[in-house]
Please model this.
Amino acid sequence: MPLDPVAIRAVRFPEIEHTLEERDCLLYALSLGLGRAEAGDWGLRYSYERELQVFPTQAVTIGHPGMWLTPDTGVTHSHVVHGGQKLRLLAPMRAGMTVVATNRVAEIADKGEGRGAIIILERTLTDKASGDALATMEWTIFCRNDGGFGGDPKLSGTFTPVPDRAPDWQAPLVTTSDAAMLYRLNGDRNPIHADPGLAKRAGFERPILHGLCLYGMAAAAIMRRGDAGLVEIEARFSSPSFPGEPMTLSVWDDGDGTAFEIIADARGKRVVDHGKVRLA
Model:
């Protein structure tokens, strides 16, 4: 069934306030594996309360408007997946800070009947106390069952493919079998990450891992190797990944940033692609 672009564009989101508790910050870091021994002292700065720093990609967990794609929008919620994410950091967050989030629908693209539709949701985070902007981001929402409403098939923005050569370096990305159950405590309670029956009805063999979990893990690996802060990161979530499966991060040191992708080793499947990072 095609979605209703008029109903979607008519959605107005209230401002969302979120106080960034110390526990939130520690949980997010642990869900990326930053408390493991192999993360060392570098990971400890994000996963231990002494001189705690907020890991920058935690911005994507703040200010989600919840189940806003209601039945009147025509969207088949069980077939909605996260297709990609762009994030630009403007100022560091701190534990204890109250953040104000604003959301708006920016674009809707019609890929055609049987091919789905794409919604771009923009979000801005600001510090409530100062009014200073903290981050801007774009969510690519892929509605797999809802194309064919007669809209424009193109989006104004694109993701950049990785260079056509061998990567400059690679690293394993290790997730545990309960990785999705842990990551969902950051706020994304979509049952396809936890309920085997619902995951199968959505077309997956078992509960899938959040693309944003791998997104944060990739950022951590690249930041740690470069010993630098994060300014921007974007990537497409091109195929489902599963908690506990071995994966490899491939990285290219490009002229205007760092490109990356993630492949599920046993399946040879690219699960994250068109990744791009800019470090401070």
